[in-house]
């Protein structure tokens, strides 16, 4: 059960879009993939064709339900999604409080999916530090930190390198890696930051995703970049990131077959 956490020290970096397309590229390799949303914005589901009006999710009943897999939605193909769901402010506060005070709260709720043979999990987190990101530290196999090719992201790099984002190491298994998103070689700053990041991070930089208008257009149509524009630069770049993650976590290319059906609604 490889579990990849997609996070960022700042918002507006295309993190959720990258998480969704990463799930798509891993599913294209034959794996069954579960995308889990830990962001109250509840936007990850939209990338998999779940209607905006569908407010189902696991958070609202997380304190009462011992098995959050009951909130999994099928999206077709090899991909499943567990939305955050529509919640009240009180429900959000209670969820985050449970994550903070109960060290086993997350593992207990995800027990079924964490122990499902061959399932790959991609979890999307809100930007910056937070109780969900901190609670996931011991469970995740790899953290993928998404940055932009701009000076604002560059200024936050020491925060990650010095383990200040959550007050300690992000990951205790395979570690954390980076993706530089929306790099634009036509702009001097973007080109310079990309070159600096490549030199500074070395093998820790799993990929550079070029700025591509097809990504926004695919989002608008609730499709993956691979379905919307399979020959686009972004599709090529994200597929490389997916292959490198698969190699790091020894994710075997499968045939999409399940050991038993995932619990879904």
UniProtKB/TrEMBL annotation:
It comes from the Bacteria. Pfam families: CBP_BcsQ. InterPro entries: Cellulose_synthase_operon_BcsQ (IPR017746), DNA_Partitioning_ATPase (IPR050678), P-loop_NTPase (IPR027417). This is Chromosome partitioning protein ParA. It comes from Erwinia typographi.
